[in-house]
């Protein structure tokens, strides 16, 4: 039988990846490609591989596919022409904040008749002073 040591082994600290999350890379790729109808998977993959220097292998392909599907489920991306079509970013609608209703002070309204009466009185007074 193999001997088991009673001292626990120190775990190696996992190195963080040299690239951001796949969702972030896909978002950057779609924004950078600026296609009106969305970007294809091949174009996104090509952009990610060239700009983040990832290997072109099945692991990258699988992670890219999974990230796209999860992004669609979360509402970050949308398929423009079905699941095998192009991928677009979903525009987030800005959340409208409810404005507090401020009570406006009511100003006394001037009647047109009162303002006309004042003008007539002033004109009449001027006529009396001149004569």
TrEMBL record:
<dbReference type="GO" id="GO:0030527">
    <property type="term" value="F:structural constituent of chromatin"/>
</dbReference>
<dbReference type="GO" id="GO:0000786">
    <property type="term" value="C:nucleosome"/>
</dbReference>
<keyword id="KW-0158">Chromosome</keyword>
<dbReference type="Pfam" id="PF00538">
    <property type="entry name" value="Linker_histone"/>
</dbReference>
<feature type="region of interest" description="Disordered">
    <location>
        <begin position="91"/>
        <end position="131"/>
    </location>
</feature>
<dbReference type="InterPro" id="IPR036388">
    <property type="entry name" value="WH-like_DNA-bd_sf"/>
</dbReference>
<dbReference type="GO" id="GO:0003690">
    <property type="term" value="F:double-stranded DNA binding"/>
</dbReference>
<dbReference type="GO" id="GO:0006334">
    <property type="term" value="P:nucleosome assembly"/>
</dbReference>
<dbReference type="GO" id="GO:0030261">
    <property type="term" value="P:chromosome condensation"/>
</dbReference>
<dbReference type="InterPro" id="IPR005819">
    <property type="entry name" value="H1/H5"/>
</dbReference>
<dbReference type="GO" id="GO:0031492">
    <property type="term" value="F:nucleosomal DNA binding"/>
</dbReference>
<keyword id="KW-0539">Nucleus</keyword>
<dbReference type="GO" id="GO:0005634">
    <property type="term" value="C:nucleus"/>
</dbReference>
<keyword id="KW-0238">DNA-binding</keyword>
<protein>
    <recommendedName>
        <fullName>Histone H1</fullName>
    </recommendedName>
</protein>
<feature type="domain" description="H15">
    <location>
        <begin position="18"/>
        <end position="91"/>
    </location>
</feature>
<dbReference type="InterPro" id="IPR036390">
    <property type="entry name" value="WH_DNA-bd_sf"/>
</dbReference>
<comment type="similarity">
    <text>Belongs to the histone H1/H5 family.</text>
</comment>
<dbReference type="GO" id="GO:0045910">
    <property type="term" value="P:negative regulation of DNA recombination"/>
</dbReference>
<dbReference type="InterPro" id="IPR005818">
    <property type="entry name" value="Histone_H1/H5_H15"/>
</dbReference>
<feature type="compositionally biased region" description="Basic and acidic residues">
    <location>
        <begin position="91"/>
        <end position="125"/>
    </location>
</feature>
<feature type="region of interest" description="Disordered">
    <location>
        <begin position="1"/>
        <end position="23"/>
    </location>
</feature>
